[in-house]
Each structure stands twice: as structure tokens, then as C-alpha cells.
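Every protein is a chain of amino acids, and every chain bends into a shape of its own. The protein below has been through that process, and both of its lines are reproduced in full.
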Amino acid sequence: MKNMNLVPSRRSQSGAALIVVLMLLVVITLLGLASMRGAIMQERMAANTISRGMAFQAAEAGLRQAEIVVRDGSVSFPSSGCSNGLCAMPDPAVDAPWTGSSFWAGTSGGYRVGTQVKTDNGDIAPKFVIESFGTSVSGGGASDCIDLSKACIETTEQSVFRITSYAATATGAEVIVQSLYRR
């Protein structure tokens, strides 16, 4: 009769289980690293979204401050260029001065600094410029009539201004917003 030993001897084992377990450990480690990297990337994206939102709110605040300057004050525009946040009527053939990469940086004197907006990561001071766009005539047209059973508003001449506001956070988020304002 043959010896039927059901338990294999140590000499016949080749270590296949060790190799399989080590390979599974490497795969699980790679999956864990990939998921950590994804979580870190999502955290950065969320932080950038929050930072951009803060910059947008500060730029909006600067826009409203500039509208108040136009509404309440008599503004005197320079004949060319920008000075203290007031810019001459833009030439359509030339880019506006505020489009330059260095205009908002430093203390160029071309823009006006608005009231700081408090945030969790420090204060943000919006910067803005007001450009003269000449005058427009409003009233008298069908689009200006709200109630067609009544006479339309009489024709009036109003000054038009383009307001551009810029804000940047300490983390590098930058936002520029614009509006046209008539008075």
C-alpha cells in the first residue's frame, strides 16, 4: 500500500501564497494612494471655488461702490488714460488700459481702491475704474413704454459709464466684473 499523506511536506511548498498576498497588498496600496490623491484634488478644487467666490463678492462690492461714486458725485474724466479710477472715453481701436496684465498690479494710480471686504482668509480690497461712454438718449421708443395705454416717457439724455471692478484673493483667485451705468 502506498503512503497517502494528505498533508504536504514543507519541502514541496513553493511560496505561491506569499507572492499572491504581496501582489494583493501592492494593488490595495495603489488603490489607497489613488483615492487619497483624488480626495486631495477635490479638496483643492473646493478651496479654489470658495476663494473665487470670495473674490467675486469683493469685485461686486467694488462695482457697487463705483456706482455710488458715479451716482452721487460729479466726476471729471481725464482727456486720455486713467487717473484715480477715472478713465477717458475708450477708443474702440485700442484696448482699454485695464486689460493690460500690469494695470491692476502694484500702485499704478490708474484705478481706485474700494472699501475692504472682510473674509475668513483676510481682507480683500476691490479695485475699480469708471470709464466715460458719452451720452445716450432714452425714452420715446416702444421698448421704453411699460403701459401702452399711456404716453411713453419723454426723451431724456443720460450719461453712460462703464464700470470695471477687479478683486484678487491671497490664494491667487482673480475676478473682473463689469456693468454699464446710466444717470
Notes: The chain has one domain: 15-182.
